[in-house]
Amino acid sequence: MSKNVFKKIILAALSAVLAFSFCACKSENSAGGGNVNIWTASGAEKLLQEADYKSRYGNTSVKIGVFRNETEAAQIMITPEYDVKSYSVETADLVSADGKVLPKTAISVYHEKYIYVDQLKDKYSPTGIGWYPDALLPIEKAAEYGENKIAANKNQGVWISVRPDENQTAGTFKGNFAVITDGKRSEVPVEITVYDYTLSDKVHSKTSFGMTMSEIAGAELDSSVEMNEKYYEFLLDRRVSAQSLPMGIINTDERLLKEYLPKWLNVAEKYTRDDRCSNINLPFATTQVSVSGKTITSVDFDLFEKTLRAIVEYSVEKNINLLEKAGTYFIFFDEYDVNNTAVMASYNINKANELCEKLATEYGAATIAEPLKSAIVKSLAGFKHKVVGELMDALKVERAAMVPKINKYHTQEQRDIYIDWDKQGYVDNGYGSEMWTYTCWDPMSPSPTYHIEDILLSSRLLSWMMYDYDIVGNLYWSTTKYQIRTSNSSNEYPIQDYYSNPLRFPRANGDGFLLYPGRPYGIDGPVSSIRLESVCDGLEEYDLLYALEELYSDGGVTKEQFDAFTQVLYKDLFSGTLVRVGDGLVNDFANARAMLADLLVTADRTGLVIKEYENKDGAASVVISAPNSTEINFADGVQAEKTVGDNRTEYALSISLDKDENRLALTATADGKNYSLEINLGGKNETVTGEKFASLITLIPDGGSVEAGDNDGEPVTKITLSEANVSAADIDVSGFGIGGKASQITLEVYLYGDEETEVTILTKCAKSDGFTVPTGMNGLKLNKGLNKVTVSATDLNFDRNGNLSVIRFRFNFQEPQAVSFAVGKLTTVR
Amino acid sequence: MKKTLIFFITLITVFCACACGKNETEVRTDERMISVNALSAPSDLDSVRMIGPVGKVTTSDKGACVTVTSDPYKAGFKLDTTALYLPFSDERAEKDYTDFTNTEFVAFDVFSESDETVSLDVRLVFSDVDLGQAVNRSKCGLPQTFEIKPNSWNRVAYSVKRELIPKTEGVPALTVKGAYIEFPAVENDTDFHLKDLRLYTTDKPVPALSSAVKSGEICSFDSYWQTELTRVDYYWDTRLIPQIRRETGITSDGIGASLKVTAKAGTAAGSVSGRYPGILIGEELLASVDFSDYPDDAKLCFDLFAPKNGGIDRLFLSLYVGSTRFFNGKAFYAVPGQWTTVSYTVAELNAAATDDANFEKTNRIFVRWSEFTGTDKVFYLDNFRVVAP
Q1: Would you say residue B23 lies in a domain?
Q2: B160 with B290, same domain?
Q3: Angle separating helix axes A301-318 and A372-381, nearest 10 degrees
Q4: Residues 6+ apart with CB under 8 A from A122
C-alpha cells in the first residue's frame, strides 16, 4: 500500500473517531461561555425561575435590617447566560465601622428549589403559571445531591438568612460574600444593620397549625416520637405552635387519654414552660349521642372531665397552671358554617362550657395555694373553646372563641361583630380577649394566603392585620400534607416526589403544606419553605408590634391613640383585609419595617412615643411625648410647641402634607446617644373642588339640570331633578382618576329642601367590570344641608380595581318627587 | 496494514466507549424477572411509604431495614396494623410496572431478626388508595400470609391471581399499583430487612374466572375467588374494618371452606352511633347467580357459626339492587358454639319490593352487625343458597 493511501486511512479513521465522539454524546454548553448575572432582592418577594428580571440586574448588594434574635432574609439571584455545572456561596464575618463583628455563624444559606404551578387556582395571582421558589434546601445538601446547577437563562435564588443572637452588638456590618460559578468567583457586597433591640423569645400571638404524624411518618419513614418532636420544635423555632403536642404516631384519642395521659402531661408541662409555645389544644375522644332524636358526634365528656381533673391535679403538684395556654379545637365540627353542623357545634360547646364552669366552681372552693388557684379557676371559667367558622345565629352558645376566615374581618362593621362577641363572652367577664382567624384555599388573593402563586408578602401581612385588628390567634389546617387529595372527598393518595407536587389539595396550590420531608436529602427532620419563613417573619413582627405597644403604654399612650397612630405603618400595606398588591408593595413594606425599627428603638432607648396622630385637612397633627431627659431635634425646619410636665415633655406639631411624599424626621438623644426616627406621613391629599364636577356629569335624567354654585363660599355643582322625572334616577359623575394609595375618600354632598332623602351611592373603578356599593352607601340618609360621605379604600380596592372613575348617585322613591342636591369637595386621604 | 486498521477500529470503539454516556439497560438475571426496586440505596426508599407506627425504615448492608417498633411510647401499648407500601412505579425514574396483565408473582426477600417465626401478610393494591384507609377491600386483594423464619433470608412470592384483578372500564391493562406488607406485632423492637422487590412475568393468558356456581348456590365460599371478591362496609372508620379470611377448618357442611369474619370493636353501640358495619356479597360475586323463577315459598338460606367465647351475638341481613335496599331484616341470632341456618322465604324478602328492586334482581347482599365496644367478635358464614320448596 502506498504511503498516501495509508495516510488517508489514518485520517479517515481519526475523522471517524471525532465524528463518533460528536454524534454519540449530548452536546453541552461549554463552561464560561457568557456572563453570569448576579443580582440581589429582598426576602419579601418570590422571584420566578423563568421570568425576565433584567431590569433588576443593577441591584448588586445585599441589604438587611434585623433585630437581635430575629430572623430576616435577602436573596442573591444568579442568572447565567450558559449552563452552570456547579455553584456555591461563601459567607464571611461582617464588620462594623468600629470593628465589631457579626459572625458568619449567624448566617444561613439555602438553595431555593422551584416547583411548577401549571394549574392556576388563585385567579388574582399576579404572577400566574410558572416555576415558583418554595422549598429551602440547605446549600450544602444541594451540592451533595448534585442540585447546585443552573440552566442557562434561568434564575436561581439563594436565600440568605441572618439571625443575630441576643448578645450581638447593634450597628451596621459590612463585608463581601462570594458566589462561585464553575470556579469563577464574584463578590457580592453585604450590609446588615442590627437594630438596637432584642426580640423576645416569648410569643404573644397564638397559633394552631396542623401537623399530621401519620403523614410525617409515611414520608420520613420514621414514626418515632423523636421525629414528631423534630417537626414540633422546627415550627416552634418559627413561632408556630402545632395543633397537637408531639406524642408520636398516637392520635389524641381515647387511647392517648387512657394509656398515655401521664406522658401527655409531662409534655404539656414542658411546653407550658416554653415561651415559644403559645397554644396547647387539649386532647379529647369522641362518642355518639342522641340529640333531639338525631345521632351526632360528641366529645366524650366523661373522659374529658377526667382529663381536666388530671391536668388540674398535675398543675397543683408541679405548681404550674397547665391550663394557661390551653384551649380546645374540637375538629369534628370544623367549619361548622359550611358543613352545616351548627347543632353539633352548639351541643358540644355548651357542654364544654358547662363542664369547665362546674370545675371552676369546684376548684374555687378547693384548698389550693394562691396565686395558682385563681389562675386555674380563671382558666377553667373562661376556657377558650375554638369554633372554626363564621358567627351565625344557628350557633346557639353563650361563649366560644370564634375562628372565622380572615376576610370576615374586612370592614369595621364586620370586625365589630367579633369584637362584641369576644367582649360579651370573655372580656367583660375578666377572661381576656381571644379572637382568632384562619385561612386555607379560601379566601384568595388579595386576601392574605399561603398559596404558592400568591406574593410572598401576603402570608407575612396576615400577622400585621391580626395585630391591627386585635386578633391574637391564627389557625391553619395542615403544614404536612404529604399526600394528595384529588377531589373534595376525604380520600388521599400517596405521592412519590414531594418536591414536585404543588397541588395537594384540589383548590389551591400549596394549601396544606408549608414543610417538606427531609429524608430524600438525608436530612433528619423537615425542610422549610419560603412561605413558612414568611409566616415566621410576620409572627416576629407581631411580637415587635406588641413590644412597641407595651413601650408606648409605658409612655402614657392609650390603646386608641396607639391604634390611630400605627395606621401610618399599615396604610400602604393593606386595606381592611386586602393586601395592597402592586408594584411598589415590597418597597412600601421595607419602609414600614424601617419605620417600625426606628419607633421601637427610639421608644426603648429614649422613651419617645407618638402620643397623638391625625391626618386631617391636608396636614398631619402630631403630639410626641418623651422623658424630660430626652432631647429632640426636628429635621426639615419643623417647629413644635413644647409642654413640659413633671416627668415628660410633649411636643405638638403640624406638618403640611403638600408634597408627593411627606415625612416627620427627628433625632432623639438620650444618655449621650443619638437615635433617628423618620415617619412616612404619606403623600399629599388629592382634592377635586366642587365646581369641577359640572363638566364631569355623564348621566342625568331628561329634564335634569346642572349648574355651578356655591355653599357658604365653597364651590359646588348643583344638580336638580324635577318631580316629573324622578321616581328612579341615576346621576353619574365620571372621569376622576384618583385613588392610588388613598385610605379613604370624603365627598361633601349638600341637600336642598326641607326633607331628608335617601340615596344609594355606587362606585366604579377603572379596571372593574361594574358598579359596587361601598359599605354604608346603600340607602344613605342625606340630611338637609352639608353631608360628609366617607368611603373607605377598603371597599374600593384601588390596588386591584384601579383608580376611582365614576360615582353614581341613585335615587329610588316610592312616588315621584323633585330633588335638588349639590356635590362639593372630594378629598382623598393617604 | 491490517493490524493498523484493526488498531484504529479498536481506538474508535474505545473512544466511543469512553467519551459518551452509558446507555442504561435493565439487568435481568431471569428473562421473566423484572427488578422493580432493589431497596438497597437510600434513594430506593423515596417511593416507599410507611403506614401506621412501624418505627423506622432505613437502609442497611442487607437492604431496606424496617424496624418494627413494639411500642412508640414504651408503655406497653400494643398498636394496630403497621405496614409498608411498595409501589410498582417510580415517577422520578419514569418506571411503570403496574400493568399486571402478564405478571404471575410478586417477590421480595426478607431477613427477620426476630427470635421466632412470624407471619407477614402481603396484599396487592389495585388502585390509588388512601393509605390511611388501607385494607379497603375494594381497593386491595385479600392478603396472602407468609411464615418468616428467624435470622435467615426468606423468599416471599405472592402468587398473583390475575383473573381477580378488578378491571377498569376503558383500560385494557390489569393494573396493580403496589404491594402492601403488614408486619406482625412484636414484643421488642425488631428489624426486618427487605431487598429486591421484583416481578415474574408469564406468557400464559389471563386465566378465565370460572365463577360458575352450582344450581341453587349463591356463594359457598368453597372457591378461593369467593372470599377474594367479598367486600366490606366500615363507614370510613379504619377501626371498624373487619378481617375476613377463607377458613377451611370450620364449615357447615364439611366441604370446602367458610368465610371467617372478625368484627372489630368500635367506640359506641350501633343504636347510638348509627353504624352497622358489614360484609358484602356484591355484584362481582353474584354475576353468575340466577335469582329468577323462584316461587314465593323458596328460601334464601345461609349458615352461621359463632364461637362460644368471643362470638358475635346477632346480625342483620339486607338485600339491594344497586343502591336501593328492598329488604332490611330484623336481627337474627347466633347460637354460640354451633352452626345454625338462617332462612327467609322469597315472599318475606319481597314484602317491600318494587318492580325495580326485588329478589329476582338482587345484586348485593349485606350481612351487618351493630357497632359495639369492648373486644372484637368472630363469626363464620357458609353456603349462601336458594332452596326450592
Answers
A1: no
A2: no
A3: 160
A4: A444, A445, A449, A451, A453, A454, A508, A509
One digit per residue, pLDDT tens: chain B, 389 residues?
665 665 555 555 544 444 433 333 333 457 799 999 999 998 899 888 887 767 889 998 888 888 877 665 543 334 456 788 899 998 878 899 999 999 999 999 999 999 999 989 898 988 766 665 555 545 667 778 899 999 999 999 999 989 888 777 777 789 999 998 988 877 788 899 999 999 999 999 888 777 678 888 999 999 888 888 888 887 767 678 788 889 999 999 998 999 999 998 887 788 777 789 999 998 888 888 999 989 999 999 999 999 999 999 999 999 999 889 999 999 999 999 999 999 999 999 999 999 999 999 999 999 999 999 889 999 999 999 999 88
Domain that holds residue B251: 217-387
Q: Using a CB-CB distance cutoff of 8 angstroms, which residues of chain B are in contact with residue A24?
A: 16, 19-20
All residues of chain A having their beta carbon less than 8 Å from the beta carbon of residue B45 are 221, 519
- A687-829: CATH topology: Jelly Rolls (2.60.120)
Q: Which of B169, B201, B233 is the last residue of a domain?
A: B201
Task: Write the pLDDT tens digit of every residue in B47-62.
Answer: 888 877 678 899 988 8
DSSP strand E in A199-335: where? 206-209, 280-281, 286-291, 294-299, 326-329
Q: Which pLDDT band holds residue A800 (cuts at 50, 70, 90)?
A: confident
Name every chain B residue with its beta carbon within 8 A of the beta carbon of A214. Answer: 51-52, 132
Cis peptide, bond prior to residue B336, ω within 30 of zero: no
The total number of structural domains in chain B stands at 2
Report how far residue A575's alpha carbon sits from residue A794's, in angstroms, rounded to the nearest whole number. 5
Question: Read out DSSP for A161-230?
Answer: EE---TTPPPEEEEEEEEEEETTEEEEEEEEEEEEEEE--S---SEEEE---HHHHHHHHTB--HHHHHH
CATH number of A36-198: 2.60.40.10
Q: Point out the residue among A218, A225, A520 whose CB comes nearest to the CB of B131.
A: A218
Note if the bond before A494 is cis, omega within 30 degrees.
no
Query: End-to-end alpha-carbon separation of chain B, Å?
Result: 100
Domain shared by B54 and B104, yes or no: yes
Same domain, B288 and B187: no
- Nearest in space to A244 (alpha carbons), one of A268, A290, A280, A271: A280
- Residue B165, phi-psi category: left (phi > 0), alpha (psi -120 to 50), beta (remainder): beta
Q: Do A288 and B56 touch (CB under 8 A)?
A: no
Q: How far is CA A597 from the centre of its chain?
A: 18
C-alpha cell at A784: 338637609
Is B187 a member of any domain? yes
Nearest partner of A311 among A324, A322, A325, A300, judged by Cα: A322
Read off the CATH number of the domain in which B288 is found.
2.60.120.260
Say yes or no: B58 and B95 in one domain: yes
> Nearest CB to A522: which of B11, B42, B48?
B42
Cell of B181: 406488607
Contact A287 B274 (CB under 8 A): no
Let me know whether B42 and B180 are in one domain. Answer: yes
Interface-testing mutation among B1, B23, B68, B73, with chain A (most A C-beta atoms within 10 A): B73
Same domain, B93 and B183: yes
- Nearest alpha-carbon partner for B142 in B220, B231, B79, B237: B231
The DSSP code sequence of B191-236 is EEEEEEEEEEE-SSPPPP------TTEEE-S-SHHHHHT-EEE-TT
- Shortest CA gap A583–chain B (Å): 38
pTM: 0.85
In a domain, B6, yes or no: no
Query: Domain coordinates of chain A in residue numbers?
Result: 36-198, 687-829
Q: Does residue B46 lie within any of the structural domains?
A: yes
**What's the gap in Å between the CA of B377 and the closest CA on chain A?**
20
User: Based on the domain organization, do B73 and B187 belong to the same domain?
Assistant: yes
